[in-house]
Amino acid sequence: MVLNPVISKLGGKLVVLASASPRRREILTNVGLRFEVVPSWFKETLDKSLFKAPYEYAVETAKQKALEVARRMQFKHLKTPDIVIGADTVVTVDGCILEKPVDKQDAYRMLSRLSGKEHSVYTGVVIIHCNSESGEEVEYDIVDFYEETKVRFAELSEEMLWEYIHSGEPMDKAGGYGIQALGGMLVEYVHGDFLNVVGFPLNHFCKTLGEIYNPPSKNEVKRVKYDSIPSVETFESPGDLENGLLACEGEREAEEPDQKDGGKSENESRSSASPQWGSVAPTGAQGQTGWKPVFPHRIANLLDGFKASKVLFAASKLKVFDLLSHPEGLRVAEVAEKIPASVVGTERLLDAAVSLGLLEKSRQGDSVVFKNTEEASRYLVSTSEYSLHGYIMHCNDHVWPLFGHLEHAIREGTSQNERAFGKKSDRLFERVADITNLLSKQQRKGRCSKAMWSICSTLCSTQEGTLIARFRAACTVIVPSCKRKPRLSRCNSARNAMQTFEKISQRKKPYMSQVDFDVNVITGDFFKDDLPKADLYILARILHDLPEEKIHILLSKLSKMCTPGCGLLVAEIFLDEERKVPCRALLQALGMCEGSQRSAPDYSQLLKTYGFTEVHVKHTGNFLDAILCVKQ
Ligand SMILES: O=c1[nH]cc([C@@H]2O[C@H](COP(=O)(O)OP(=O)(O)OP(=O)(O)O)[C@@H](O)[C@H]2O)c(=O)[nH]1
């Protein structure tokens, strides 16, 4: 392309736009860029008081949006994009940052503030190059910039303001107006890049690409190791709501998205991810209607997805990751001998695991050796502290056969236990026990608890001296008794529990060493047996798979046991309110028996009827989300 040789340099790369903004998509599509759209789930709630200037806030938000997508794609979609583009647009007036209005009143506040004045529009843009070539952890080369445009509004009459607000246009736009449409009528002048106001400074973007590809100046490229990426909490803490130098009084910029009645909530933003999660066929500069075929990455990945899962399962079952934790690595023949398996089959398995990023392959003299990646050592070795081996085996031995009968499950609306295992059983844990019947009693116990244990490992981990309460053969009710702090006060108990959950769900530190209470293991049946007394009860992956009447029995029991101030932490995957995401919850539902997946507000409502009041909801993006309640 003569007009922009830089854009054409991106051809053949997997470019991802980490934005739900239709305007950004259109601007980039119009110049012939081929890309996928994966809207970011990053919540725009960074503490504004931490930034010296508004553009720094916009750039950092753009960066976090893009990084969230880069990381999610790598782990959830098993593919690393080449380039991720993120952007964030804010309006500043009188030292205040205005984002998207949350409702009509908020739009009114913003627009009346802009009336008759000049303001600045900043768009922060981040271009991330994801570098996974070295076979090590993905490195992110981050280039960022911002663009400022000055805009002056005419004096706006009340009538004009309200008519514009009632048009609905302000709601998903920074500063509450769309310069490209009706909002253009409010504008007296624009100094600077018009498209920057619309949400994407195209000219600056192309110049930056030019600098990167011709070639980059080392000083401008910040190379960031994956490990060193600052993890920004996407859950709003009360502190975020209270602080914020640049957040203006009376404005609701930092409110919980689900309280917004106008702006795009997190749920909406998340749910828009699915339909757009595919290749965008650009109309191109030649015309608006010409569709060009593009490779359907998403469908291709889905086609191969089951094979990739099965490679993970088979390698885990054959204890390949245990063998390959050997520091020097092993040759194919050595692995084959130890498994034991055929050399040719082993080689295929190891090569496939390398291609999936689970193993590393290198040359040592004349031989080729395989060893675990860091991630495999951490999560796939059966004896590792954070091992997911039990969960993987549960997926292989139980979930996999069930999903082989998915068409029947859908036609009949029932779980396919009988078809898969030749035996009717209506509860998950009984089924887990069924498939372990072949094992010795001791092994059976281990298998059940291991499977559930590693599913719950985002919540807790074993350590000498710590014990977990087990009911119905699976360790899913956890009853910590605060021995060192005999009884926490109501408020402390709640806060401590959630902080604990947050720490352990981040998977960064040895979980239980962070926990300041002891945990007792009690084996039993939580429907029949008495529950032990505790200050905090944790129901991890229990409620979703229970029918209403069993939920009632369990929650009534817990409600009776809990005195005011006692906590109940429910860990499940939370659906969004429109039941569109997360994918993991909806896929899990396909194999469920009598239960149902719920959203956080559904759980909150359910628990309320048993006297538990919601204190905190945590969407982790991990295996489990959590809702913490306190008994009133
Ligand atoms: O004149 C206009 N000004 C601004 C816009 C649009 O406003 C939004 C700005 O919001 P943000 O940068 O947070 O982007 P989102 O839409 O939330 O999408 P992300 O997924 O990237 O967070 C942006 O859409 C601008 O296009 C406008 O249209 N006209």
TrEMBL record:
Keyword Hydrolase: yes
Any Gene Ontology biological process: methylation
Keywords: Hydrolase, Methyltransferase, S-adenosyl-L-methionine, Transferase
Gene3D superfamilies per UniProt: 3.90.950.10, Vaccinia Virus protein VP39, Winged helix-like DNA-binding domain superfamily/Winged helix DNA-binding domain
GO MF annotation terms: nucleoside triphosphate diphosphatase activity; O-methyltransferase activity; protein dimerization activity
Cofactor(s) for this UniProt protein: a divalent metal cation
PANTHER family: BIFUNCTIONAL DTTP/UTP PYROPHOSPHATASE/METHYLTRANSFERASE PROTEIN-RELATED, BIFUNCTIONAL DTTP_UTP PYROPHOSPHATASE_METHYLTRANSFERASE PROTEIN-RELATED
Protein's UniProt name: Acetylserotonin O-methyltransferase-like
Source organism (scientific name): Lepisosteus oculatus
Species lineage: Eukaryota, Metazoa, Chordata, Craniata, Vertebrata
